[in-house]
Protein 1
Amino acid sequence: MTDMAQPIASPPSASSVMLAMANKVWMSAFPFVVVIALWQFASLFFPRFLFPSLVDVFWRCIDIFTTGSMFWDVMATVLRILAGLAGAFVIGGILGLIMVRSKAADKFLSPILTLFQGIPALSWVVFAIIWFHGIEFRIFFIMVMTTLPAFTFQVIGALRGMSKDLTEMVFSFRPTRLKLFRVMIAPAILPDILTAWKVNLGNAARVVVVAELVGATGGVGYQLLQQQQLFDMAGALAWTLQLVFFVLIVQGVLTLIENTAFRYRAVSERAI
Amino acid sequence: MTDTLVAEKAATAGGVIHLGDVTKVFGKEGVAGSYRAVDHLNLDVASGQMLALLGKTGCGKSTIFNMIAGLTEPTAGTVRVNGKNPFAEFDAFRGKIAIVFQGDRLLPWRTAIQNVQLGLEMLDRPPPDRKDTARKWLIKLGLGGHEDDYPHQLSGGMRQRVSIARAFATNADLLLCDEPFSALDESTAGKLRGEFVRLVKENGKTAVFITHSISEALEIGDRIVVLKRPAMIAYDVSFDKDTPLEERMMIRERIGEVLAA
């Protein structure tokens, strides 16, 4: 059998690349276009307080963005989410490390965290209102308590899932604890940490609204309560969209970090 | 049974590596599931020696290897490397022992040159210095131009070369190799073996090489220790490059007999 020269594929033309990109954008936008069209269609037949025109919602969104006091409400919610997630991540990371290193700590803390996981977010809101006075601390407490178990279990899973062979290899060079963390632990657990952030971000966005709804004097949750009392559906949608935009932006940043940090990964040509 | 066929036995008490009456039991002895991997083993390795530890799978080679590396503690007996306990004085061996593992064990998030720099980072060598050293070793092992490739972009043989470069880069006096070429095809393995022996001799290292291949042991070692389960020395022979072919054939036959017994 002789070797046959393989035909060399010519590079794709600029127009075909553009066409492929446009197709990709269209495929991603298509579900949203359908939802928007259905809503707008419904707004023609239903009263404004049930299905407001999305044009009105759009202008309300612009209004929130451009009015200082209202934009500050959005930022307050964003900061609360980020602070709560950061707090839960730091505490969860420390607890996870302790639980991986000590069987006794694991046996003691695991049931407590599982118990916490079973407590509804709304119960934590009630507990926080009864226990604490400061609004910001209340919300921080609620955010931490609702996302802490997930962060802890995800850190534990990541640490336990680290390759034993690679860890042993790094150990053979006798690293200090700090260097072991920098060269092995941090890069090995980063994929799971980013996934944990992505998952908890959605949860946190939902919980913060509940916390603000009953225990705050500002923020997206508080504003949603105002819209409900005014029966203003356009306002409720506009404020909800602020939170959706924020989640999308942070998810985008996390995806960007993933694409940069995990460029070392081999990609199979065959999809799962 | 211990033979001295060709040269005088290099086993000298107080060598670079000393294992005195070493026993290793995994689990609690006498309890179901416990396993005696090493049984009252005595072994000394002299400076500059290339010792091939030969034995069948499960004979305790890797346990001995891990004890010398300081990754496992013996249940009884003494393990000393340069007069120190490698398990208890773990950090004292930073930069003194380098290991080439069975698989390449490259960190997938690091490029080839970053992987080679790993041991140098542990020694706090300045970045430009460690980069130069890593590049030098990659070029020496025929990987010039692949410095910035990630492990998944390299072939199995190239990855194993990177792991050899990583071990040599630290300039450790003692090299421990755990069947580093067993996963490679024979042609690549043969080529790498030759390069490995040359580098060890050129750089005056002491090496312990674990293998289950008689041919590999004869090619690499200047002393071969054949182990029988549970890691007892069944045959111990030293030779050198001037050893005549007939004597090498005799050694090969003898090893075959010991392993088959």
Protein 2
Amino acid sequence: MKIAVCVKQVPDTWAEKKLTDADRTLDRESADGVMNELDEYAVEEALLLTEASGGEVVAVSMGPDKAEETVRKALQMGADSGIHIVDDSLHGSDAIATSLVLSKVLADKGFDLIIFGSESTDARMSVVPAMVAERLGVPQMTFANKVEVAGETLKIQRQTEYGYDEVESSTPAVVSVVEKINEPRYPSFKGIMAAKKKPIETVTVADAGVDAGQVGLAAAWSQVDQFSERPPKAAGVKIEDDGSGGVKIAEYLSEQKFI
Amino acid sequence: MSEILVLVDHSDGTVKKVTLELLTLARGLGQPAAVVIGSGVDTQPLAEYGAETIYVADDGDLSNYVVGPKVDVLAQLVEEKSPAAVLIASSAEGKEVAGRLAVRLNSGVITDAVAVAEDLSATQSVFGGAVIVTSKVSTGTPIITVRPNSSPAEAAPAAGTVVPVAVTLTDTAKAAKITNRVVAQSGGRPELTEAAVVVSGGRGVGGEDGFGVIESLADSLGAAVGASRAATDAGWYPHQYQVGQTGKTVAPQLYIANGISGAIQHRAGMQTSKTIVVVNKDPEAPIFELADFGVVGDLFTVVPQLTEEIQKRKG
Ligand SMILES: Cc1cc2nc3c(=O)[nH]c(=O)nc-3n(C[C@H](O)[C@H](O)[C@H](O)COP(=O)(O)OP(=O)(O)OC[C@H]3O[C@@H](n4cnc5c(N)ncnc54)[C@H](O)[C@@H]3O)c2cc1C
Ligand SMILES: Nc1ncnc2c1ncn2[C@@H]1O[C@H](COP(=O)(O)O)[C@@H](O)[C@H]1O
């Protein structure tokens, strides 16, 4: 089985995120980059599937020069090779453009599965996997908390608002996984050493067959007009429970007209 | 006046509150038209909340596939009716529908809006509510997903003319077939993302039994119950009640966090709640940074006392 896994580099979850004044895009320089933590589950699932039934895993990431670290991290975890899509024209791309570039790069390479994380912790849109499925015209098997492949049949449990759906499709397919699905491994020392020798192919927008005018900030189909930082919330009241903490909350709730 | 299409979110034939909020919002933007996909949906509330037209696609096959059929129906309607915008509830699935529809129609998409202005610019609250962004779709038909509880639902009866829609599903729409649906029990409480009050428990609740005190407090306030990932991972409470990055995003009027430390992934799902009350025995717990009213104490004494006091006050 040949699996592509899409991994994104995002600012460290704990770092304060800012928009740049210059062009109102996420300030990626001011924070350390890490692999989107939800994509670690995608890498793990790809590795589990190929360890069980053979095959190869290719880690794919679109992002600036330093996003190569994130491709490398996937290789350290055990992926076989990487594709890093890097091009100055990509700066400021929205989900529409990201899905366009990813699907152009992923099409016609014979992948049985393309696995995504369920959401990027910076964009928080959760739409790229669905968009890639739409563009490639393949089944959308997203929000999986269980994945089973038998021959050309794929079965997942899709997490829903009310419980889960059992869903079936053929391969090739787009899959996204939720964090309940597995426990991502840490790269081992051996894995880290081995990753140094694994190939990472660098792909430009032109290589992908995409016109540079279709990507980047200027091409985005939605524009940020304004942004402002919300004034920090006024400090609340904090009291030590002296045996009447519950009553004190009730008093507060009743002042605020909740009771 | 151009139509504003509102995709109706429903469960078991009942229209969700978020749809009524979207219809109310749509009235300020154009002429609201509801789009019902699926069978057996009670359309009466749609007319009551301002839908001039109700497009109904109720071919039984539509609900047997993941997302695709909804995209087909909406794409067809957008092409036929040229609406000014499409509004969809910002649930996990709603965002997927919006994303695919945008690609299909060559339109821009904005997700997780908390407000939409007359000129169709949308306000989003990003980075955990620290930054407010206003954006506008510049290409195609604006497709906007709006968070539940962002604006009120106000009745304003309209014609509600039902127009049946015939659809032929594309092959891609039928690519991912739902073979079984497993519905977890709701316990008769309001839906988590729609509730005005949410009472949550975390690792501090100590176990499945500990959720009893959380549920009692929730019931005294007519609230929904939420949980942190520590609690759902431990199997103390079902996953669909998880609040946070990988659970649900809630923005109720009142959020009461009990025995929850306030990790960034939890905050991502509740930070924009209007009023936040915290009970935690660790005075250093980061969740106190968000609290409008916080009590440092043991939840097993504070919460039952609070429940009792609420019952007393309600008589
Ligand atoms: C990829 C990823 C996604 C995640 N997604 C989510 C998500 O969607 N939602 C989420 O919640 N988390 C999520 N997390 C987990 C998150 O990082 C935290 O681990 C989790 O929120 C902790 O839950 P908690 O606050 O209940 O537990 P803890 O952090 O252990 O906190 C328990 C708190 O209870 C207090 N306490 C203990 N006993 C009592 C008592 N008797 N009375 C009062 N207080 C008491 C303690 O002082 C402590 O502050 C995610 C993590 C990752 C890596
Ligand atoms: N620039 C990118 N490069 C590779 N994968 C991406 C990129 N952006 C998003 N993804 C994938 O799409 C998923 C959902 O992202 P999003 O729709 O931005 O929330 C992520 O978890 C990644 O798997």
